[in-house]
Predict the 3D structure of the following.
Amino acid sequence: MKGAFQIASVKGIRIFIHWTFFILFIWIAYSRMSANGTVADVLNEIVFMLSLFICVLLYELGHALAAAKYNIKTRDITLLPIGGVARLEKMPEDPKQELVVAIAGPMVNVAIVGVLLIIISLGKGMPIAFDMEDYSANGFAVNMMLVNISLIVFNLIPAFPMDGGRVFRALLAMKWSRVRATQIAAAVGQSIAVLFIAAGLFFNPFLILIGVFVFFGAQTENKMIQQQSVFKNVTVKQAMISTYTALSDSSTYQEGVNALLSGYVTDFLVLSGGEVVGYVTRDELLKGYAEYGPDTLISHSIRKVDYAVTENDALDKVWMKMMESDLPLVPVYSDGVVTGILSKENVSELMALHLLKAQRG
């Protein structure tokens, strides 16, 4: 994630913290001091927030370690002012496995609550405060326990794609298809999102942000699952363009623009001696034409292709990779030779055609 820097690594999972996280501390200091608070009040609040985000980190690690049980890697975990984000390579398609991965996060909070409850019952809590006069021995532990209980309740709300919504989807998928289960979970999630937004208008504006995230998150994931179902058992060869226009690394911007105007293709593979060196997009061609002039080589605008596929690769997996990496096209190989290209444009057209056929039955 842009604007984040690594602070640790756990079992190969990189932990990042976003720079906006520090805005939270500035806001805490400002709000406390504006309310005639002391430096001790500010420090107490910051310590509590740091402790809370340690719980959030453990929560996300719960997801990651549960996913690792099914050989699913976690790319990284990023801490943001609104919580944490664990980027799993994918969610398990088996509903029982998805249920385990989804519930793993909240179960971490349950474990934390259990530990804190024991500490409180034994009276062994520590105030962990810079001004001891206003804190009982168990004050910090009680507050942290209440927050973790709130996290459990909130995260188990069946608002897909929140964890509660994923648990809901997993349970539905035990009876219906993954596509149908996702459609139902997404519809319920978006309904709850509307309630969040409405509540935010009257109570807490933060709920509006959550509602917007849930609404569009449900919409995006529902669409992605439909795409995956369309491309199930479809190979790259069935979707690739075998007759395509390519540019050379010795082509000029004028030649690139001419190729752009002479056909419907908007993104071009760039070759050098028959070998792929990268690709160039419509926007980059036009920008380079205006900035460097028509007779300049397009080398200024060539982007490297770090991902290549073969004709027999599964289209659904390739499509996900293209979407994640924002690749407009990738070269397709057979026996080490480029036989075509796969572009977002032609895959989208194929998807629309398949969905239309499915709707007509």
